[in-house]
Amino acid sequence: MQAVEVKSLLEAKLPGTQVEVEGEGCNFQLNLISDELAGLSPVKRQQQVYAHLNAWIADGSIHAVTMKFFSRADWAGRS
């Protein structure tokens, strides 16, 4: 699976979320920018994302995923 595929999939499934993906092959670092996700508990955030990736994790297309969550204001304020 390619980074652009992960980005497209998650942005389609999580409306209002900007997804920045780094990595290749089957290991990805996700930066998810969403006020809605940022307001959830850490476990709930991850559940929202894994719900859409589980099929690819199960078939081995994705092996490792790390996630960071940002509100829109936090993302804009990064240096």
From TrEMBL:
- Write down the species: Metapseudomonas resinovorans (Pseudomonas resinovorans)
Database matches in InterPro entries: BolA, BolA-like_sf, BolA/IbaG_stress_morph_reg
Output the superkingdom of the source species: Bacteria
- Pfam families assigned: BolA
Identify its protein family: Belongs to the BolA/IbaG family.
Question: By what name is this protein known?
Answer: BolA family transcriptional regulator
